[in-house]
Amino acid sequence: MNKKIISCAICGAETTREHNPHLPITPRELAEAAYDAYKAGAAIIHLHVRDKEGKATQDLETFKKTISLIQDKCDVIIEVTTGGAVGMTDEERLEVVSLNPEMASLDCGTMNFGNEYILNTLPVMRQFALSMKERGIRPTLECFDLSHVYAAQTLINEGLVEEPFHFSFVLGVPGGVRYDVETLDHMVRRIPVGSDWTVIGIGGRASLDAHYGAISLGGHIRVGFEDNVYYSKGVLAESNAQLVERAVRIIKEAGFTHSSPADVRTQLKLRGVEV
Ligand code: ZN
């Protein structure tokens, strides 16, 4: 596979303007950031939304408005979060799939999240996976831990997640597994052969290291303010697009090209945007 997918997580649930003053928050700002990331080379936008105070919300109207503003500008693929934020109920997190996005994240287990925790039991994961399957939404199987890889395999074995599989290894969350290339390699070897995967390295060092780890082990790249607000040590990124631009350069230097949204729709067999 000569093409590498760039996903961009433009705001996340936890990042604030104190972390980086360029964080997009309102639907209009999110759409602008998504469009700039798309122009720079991102094929997938991983989307969280915020309320008027800038706090993470799963409010359907805010999602709807943001998605429609993005779709007015470009045909980038939208992957909505169903991880939401710490403290949200399962129902709150899942409701956004009713908007029928092409993709959605699916957290594959329970774990520490800094001083908090995220809770995903197998029955909850089955419910999320089934909802996505019924709607033709491609899940991104987010694995924060090796046990999550096996839990994802359980969903696959039960027919709740179908091929082609798209995994995302989330490494570097405080209290969780840290990023290093040996750990990544170990996890990658335990997903079904032929799966597509990306790495979410949390923090500047892990995020950039993960670009190179992913390229060398056959994966794709994720960037964005959800994972990392820095361009280099002590230097804040000016925009999500700036992080995408660097990913494009790394992909090119490694002898690959970055995927367009159309490439990804074919590769991951997405159902396309409903009009
Ligand atoms: Zn997210």
- Which range best describes the helical content: under 10%, 10-25%, 25-40%, 40-55%, 55-70% or over 70%? 25-40%
Number of domains: 1
Just name the CATH architecture: Alpha-Beta Barrel
Distance between the termini: 31 Å
Secondary-structure map with pairings?
Blueprint: E1 3-4, E2 6-9, H1 27-40, E3 44-47, E4 49-50, E5 56-57, H2 60-73, E6 77-80, H3 90-94, E7 103-107, E8 111-113, E9 116-118, H4 122-135, E10 138-143, H5 146-157, E11 166-171, H6 181-188, E12 196-201, H7 204-217, E13 220-223, E14 230-232, E15 235-236, H8 240-253, E16 257-258, H9 261-267
Parallel strand pairs: 1-16, 2-3, 2-13, 3-6, 6-7, 7-10, 10-11, 11-12, 12-13
Antiparallel strand pairs: 4-5, 8-9, 14-15
The chain binds zinc ion.
Structure description:
The structure is a single chain. With 275 residues, the chain is of the alpha/beta class. The chain has one domain: TIM Barrel. Helix content is 37%, strand content 21%. It is built from nine helices and 16 strands. The two termini are 31 Å apart. The model has no long low-confidence stretch (mean pLDDT 97). Zinc ion binds at residues 9, 12, 46, 48, 81, 83, 105, 226.
